[in-house]
Amino acid sequence: MRKKIVAGNWKMNTSVEEGILLAKQISFLTKDLENGVEVIIAPPFTHLAGVSQVLKNEGGKVHLSAQNCADQLSGAYTGEVSAKMLEDVGCKYVIIGHSERREYYGETNETLLKKIEQALSAGLSPIFCVGEKLDERESNRHFEVVAEQITEVLYKLKGFDMSKVIVAYEPVWAIGTGKTASSDQAEEMHAYIRRVIGGKFPALADDISILYGGSCKPSNAQEIFAKENVDGGLIGGASLVAQDFIAIIKSF
Ligand code: PEP
């Protein structure tokens, strides 16, 4: 079954104290939520243990995600954090392949596949990000680029594993820029992504949640989430302000 999901990607923001406070506010404000939306927050690594405790104390309605994981199981990989460690600390999800990781840290499709495999074998659901850059959209290659990101990574998974994956379509030109894809542009790409997934996993395509990300905010979430193939959002900037994040969650 396709789930409605709103996930907040905090990126490299907030002190531990601020993060704990934000997690408490989000937990409190979502307590009586009854619109069936799965709420996820993805704080920095250093915050995960503390935030995990907060979420457990508050009743476990908000789920924890990491923003990245290692492409290896364990061992001599200084500075890395394994998927199993994330599962140990209470994560249920991990964001993989965010455009900032692809662009600033050189993460390739090959690395991303390894990360997804690590996440899945640790019992985490990957939130796999895809999306085209501005010049790729302007030269009308956006469908081709996104299809390649999917076929080179997700097509290598087994159906059972694919059923645990969430896809986030994040046009790079819309991330943190204030420019949002129109709801029609989002729907067009989400429907396309579903068709591409169906090319390899026909029985699953309808059940995979596909989130939109890129300057999503309270003022545009409702229109975007109303589209048939948009199952929620991956929210950056607006997820750092509890009231805005809640307003987005309530846009369903
Ligand atoms: C993101 O980084 O995943 C994102 C969608 O950021 P923003 O909402 O700030 O554009």
CATH names the topology as TIM Barrel
Strand content: 15-25%
Share in helix: 40-55%
- Rg from C-alpha positions? 17 Å
From the structure provided, what is the oligomeric state, counting identical versus distinct chains?
A: single chain
Query: Which CATH class is shown?
Result: Alpha Beta
Number of helices: 11
> What's the rounded overall pLDDT mean?
96
Shape call: globular
Major sheet attributes: 8 strands, parallel, barrel
Keywords:
TIM Barrel, 11 helices, binds phosphoenolpyruvate, single chain, about 250 residues, about 15% strand, alpha/beta
Characterise the protein shown here.
α7 packs parallel to α9 and α10 (218-225) packs parallel to α11. The relative contact order is 0.15. With 252 residues, the protein is of the alpha/beta class. The chain has an 8-stranded parallel beta barrel, surrounded by 7 helices. It has one domain: Aldolase class I (TIM Barrel), CATH 3.20.20. α10 links the parallel β7 and β8. Helix content is 41%, strand content 15%. The protein has helices spanning 16-30, 48-57, 83-88, 99-104, 109-121, 134-138, 142-151, 159-162, 183-200, 218-225, 242-249; strands spanning 4-9, 37-42, 62-66, 93-96, 125-130, 166-169, 210-213, 232-235. Bound molecules: phosphoenolpyruvate. Phosphoenolpyruvate is lined by residues 9, 170, 175-176, 213-216, 234-238.
